[in-house]
Write a structure and sequence with these properties.
The protein has 2 domains: 3-43 and 165-364, Naphthalene 1,2-dioxygenase Alpha Subunit, Chain A, domain 1; 46-156, 3-layer Sandwich (Rieske Iron-sulfur Protein), CATH 2.102.10.10. The strands form 4 sheets. The protein has a 7-stranded antiparallel β-sheet with strand order 1-10-9-4-3-2-5, with no helix packed on it. Strands 11-19-18-17-16-13-12 form a 7-stranded antiparallel β-sheet, covered by helices on one side. A 3-stranded antiparallel β-sheet has the order 6-7-8, with no helix packed on it. It has helices at residues 3-8, 25-28, 30-41, 169-177, 197-204, 211-214, 216-219, 254-258, 307-336, 351-364, and strands at residues 46-50, 59-65, 68-74, 80-84, 98-100, 105-107, 114-116, 121-123, 143-149, 152-156, 184-193, 228-231, 235-240, 248-249, 252-253, 262-267, 271-276, 279-289, 292-301. Helices cover 26% and strands 29% of the residues. The longest helix has 30 residues, at 307-336. The chain has 10 helices and 19 strands. The protein binds FE2/S2 (inorganic) cluster (FES) and fe (ii) ion.
């Protein structure tokens, strides 16, 4: 497969009304999984930790984004720094999981090299004068960029990345108007799905096109005739008011669940924030390989004591997610079949998807 030919089958420089969708290889070839890692996940902002998870000084949390290991450590003043979690000795992940930085150190479990919470190499067990031409100051953990926004700590493996927060102005305003930071964390959930991560994102960004067909109960709660999509540089916002009809689902009226209307915000490449009524949930879609992804959910509520409301709300979310999983796994069958030729966009509905594909294309060509 010639990667450049496959990338260039998509033409971003045309009207959405004339454009074709990307070819199946973008969603099913191993070479594109590697390309996504190199040109997208190595260079984009990812929310990896809730701020409250690292509230204590001298603690750390680690994880992996598309095969790129990271660690965030708080120093003795509680300030956070992010690093590539790759030991400068032999490449083991310095730490795993989360824990306390004992004596202010991140200690590699393999041979015991120790790094401070600022990433500097502090101590090498059994080092003596026979180690020549060795400058400790150049052997610290490699930094990642870090920013805090909303409820989360975001990191970017590219330490010289363009700042995140300044690029989100309209989204920030819309979320502030919904008092989103007042909502309290309740729980999380992880789903493994047999589809490429971009299939899941496409489904999210189709302008509500699939809602009447695949989500009958959600469809009953939204006023689909007013559903709209706004496009920004590195994110888009879909929104819908609640239906004016007197419909209730899972014991909740549309007005109780949807409130002032839904906001479905997507940030390139893989982060979604959904606000409706007094609830917020997030979906973070991470690639496992070219045919599988993992979707991580967090649920937030204004009133975390209202168990009846919360249970109904999470049950409704689970139903919608199951319906989406069914769609996405079936689309992946089509992508792998060898018989999918690029489809066409409905320009009045699917401009969010076209925007995503243009951003992918631009990153692939960087
Ligand atoms: S790999 Fe970390 S100390 Fe050897
Ligand atoms: Fe859906």
């Amino acid at each position: 497969m010639n990667l450049n030919n496959e990338i260039n089958q998509f033409n971003p420089n045309t009207l959405v009304g004339k454009a074709s969708m990307p070819p199946a290889s973008w969603y099913s070839a191993q070479a594109f999984y590697e390309l996504d890692k190199k040109t997208i996940f190595n260079k984009t902002w990812q929310p990896v930790v809730r701020i409250s998870e690292l509230a204590q000084p001298e603690t750390y949390k680690s994880g992996c984004i598309s095969g790129i290991p990271w660690v965030i450590a708080s120093n003795k003043n509680g300030e956070l720094k992010a690093f590539h979690n790759v030991c400068r000795h032999k490449g083991r992940e310095v730490v795993t999981g989360q824990g306390t930085a004992k004596d202010g150190m991140l200690t590699c479990g393999y041979h015991g090299w120790q790094y401070g919470t600022e990433g500097d190499l502090k101590r090498i067990p059994r080092q003596d004068k026979s180690l020549l031409d060795f400058d400790k100051s150049t052997m610290g953990l490699k930094p990642m960029a870090l920013e805090v926004w909303g409820h989360w700590v975001f990191i970017n493996p590219d330490s010289s990345a363009k700042p995140l927060v300044g690029s989100l102005s309209t989204l920030n305003e819309q979320l502030e108007a919904r008092n989103w930071t007042k909502l309290k964390y309740h729980s999380n959930k992880t789903w493994n799905i047999g589809c490429n991560w971009k299939v899941y994102v496409d489904n999210y960004l189709d302008g509500g096109y699939h809602i009447p067909h695949m989500h009958p109960s959600l469809n009953d709660q939204l006023d689909m005739s007013s559903y709209r999509t706004e496009i920004f540089e590195n994110y888009s916002i879909q929104s819908s008011p609640p239906t004016k009809k007197d419909n209730s689902v899972q014991g909740l009226s549309a007005q109780a669940r949807i409130g002032d209307g839904s906001i479905y915000a997507w940030m390139f490449p893989n982060f979604m924030i959904n606000v409706y009524g007094d609830c917020l949930d997030i979906n973070l879609v991470q690639p496992i390989d070219e045919n599988n992804c993992r979707v991580y959910y967090e649920f937030y509520f204004l009133n975390t004591d209202d168990n009846g409301f919360i249970e109904s709300s999470i049950r409704q979310s689970d139903i919608t997610q199951q319906e989406d999983i069914e769609i996405c796994e079936s689309v992946q069958v089509g992508m792998k079949s060898g018989h999918y030729s690029p489809g066409r966009y409905l320009p009045n509905i699917e401009q969010g998807e076209f925007h995503f594909h243009k951003l992918l294309f631009n990153n692939y060509h960087q």
